[in-house]
Amino acid sequence: MIITHLSPARLVPLPYFHPIPSLSFAPSTTYLFIGTSPPPTPPHTMSASDPSSSSQSEYVTLVSGDGFEFVIPRSTACVSGTIRRMLEPSSRFSESVTGRCVLENISGIVLEKVCEYFCYNEKNKNQTYVPDMDIPPELCLELLMAADYLDA
Amino acid sequence: MMGANSQPFAFQLENCEICGKRFTVTPYSKAGPRGGLLCAKCSKELADDEKKPRANRRAPRSGRRQKQSNLLDGFAQPGAPSLAEMCTKKVADNINDIEEFGDLPPQLLHRLGQILCKRRVLTSRTLNLFLRSDLNFIDIYDAAKLETQDFEKIFAFMPNLYHVNFRFASQMKDKVVDYLLDRDLKIKRLQLDAANLISDACWQQLFRKLGPQLESLKLSNLDSSFDDETVEVMCRECTALQRLKLKQCWKMGNRSLRAISELLSLQHLSLNFVQEVDNEILLNTISKTSPRLRTLSLEGISTADDRLLDIIHVNCRALTKFRFSDNAVCSDRGFVALFTDWSNPPLEFVDLSSTRDVDNSNPDGPADAIGLASHGFMALMNHSGPGLQKLNIASCRHVSRSAFEEVFAAGKTYPNLEELDVSFHTVVDDYVVGRIFQCCPKLQKLVAFACFNLRDAQVPAGVALIGGLRAQDPIVLEGHHY
């Protein structure tokens, strides 16, 4: 897993998915805010600036809201229904063109755990006994919200 | 001095090798990493460090217990659980450190409630986490620890409630129902289990107030109240009722059964009587309600005979779920007649468990078989095979091996069957189970308690075989030992 830090994060609109419940922001809570994303910008306006990362690349890049980048194998990331649909070549979303998913509502620390889960899931594929993954108690609620959003 | 590493005697003074402090040497002082002596504090720390790895030095965990536990829950899918499921469990582990859930989506809230109830930790404190005025449903699968004011709090905080489900609601009293009725809630679905502190007068008041709006009513385990008169009031008031389930209500008898026949919009009916009911009244009730029914569940009605099956055959056109269990009167011929040329579409859920002859002096039963036997089973699978998702034929002891072979013959498939219970069928052996796996591509769960001829079945990956003689053995998956 390669982690780099960009500052400031490049802003790419997230595709809009109907199955994701739209949640309203409650200012009193300190938990992760997951809101509806703006509708997708038509693909031709997207900056497919990086020609090397085509939609067929073996790796994809997940970017957290605070600018951390995680480069992980495409197959592991597609455990998440949301990411899989983002990267679906037929969708022609900017994510599927560039292989880069910006998850603005997920912080780096949570996204790191999510990526750890993707790899843990891949490693334990077809195992009958799967040891528990370590989840820090203080992260579990935020991670739960992220898991719900990512459909993982 | 003999040499650098000669040890000072006990009660001499020495400087500790690690922390450098001067201390009195005792017989318990430990040697440090470079051969010197350690003070009492550092000795203890060293000893603790040595102990730790020993405690961890266990055999690698095979997870057999966990696997068996998952199997009994019908969970045999290989691989890791979903991230959401793992996080939900983790949240449940740390429930006492959580102040509020924030905007947790309703389906996760529901799952969390299930886990907490299963662990029996749903108390006044944890209940507060679930009280959200924006939600219109509440499911508490174990309300045994909640008290009167907790129930009142639920109705106070959630004004939009339309779905209420409290199990083990043993502390729900008349006072709570009065409060609920005062609040003028729009409850449409009500399920209460073991609410024995509610009096008959209060039940009747509840039906008079909420009756017209109720669409679904499920009551179970009521022994001290809920008598025939209350049921009559209920049937008079709840005119829009589509779903009715009454299980183990001790005071209900024939009058109640007669009253239920007046419910004209019922689509789902589940009855489990404690008292013995009159067969004629049962026939009358079922013939009046059955044409509209999509679910019919009759448990433990020992007096019902073949005429009931005939009424179902003639009347039912929309049935998808059919349970008729624990009966020793209906004959195999009756079941054949029911499932042959039946204009009802294929059933999705069938439970005919424990329909069999019980006479210990004649274990094979009479020549004219009682209960679902070979021919009835074949007729059932001919009629419902394509649609069937769940089938329970446990203890239907007169189904022969050749009937199983016929039903699960090569070339036959039951494309939707996910769960099958063949417990107490001693004719089921490794060959028959192999055939079952062949014919049911979607099978997830096969329950086979007390199938004594089942020894070394090859269980495909992703199928949970529950019961079986060798539950203690490692699981065998397509020939690979794990």
Automatic annotation (TrEMBL), chain A:
Its main location: nucleus. It comes from the Eukaryota. The keyword DNA damage does not apply. One of its GO terms (biological process) is ubiquitin-dependent protein catabolic process. InterPro entries: ELC1, SKP1-like, SKP1/BTB/POZ_sf, Skp1_comp_POZ. SMART domains: Skp1. GO terms for cellular component: nucleus. This is E3 ubiquitin ligase complex SCF subunit sconC. It comes from Aspergillus kawachii.
UniProtKB/TrEMBL annotation, chain B:
GO terms for cellular component: SCF ubiquitin ligase complex. Residues 12-47 form the DNA repair protein rhp7 treble clef domain. This is DNA repair protein rhp7 treble clef domain-containing protein. Residues 50-72 are annotated as: Disordered. It comes from Aspergillus kawachii (White koji mold). Residues 54-67 have a biased composition (Basic residues). Gene3D superfamilies: Ribonuclease Inhibitor (3.80.10.10). GO terms for biological process: SCF-dependent proteasomal ubiquitin-dependent protein catabolic process. It comes from the Eukaryota.
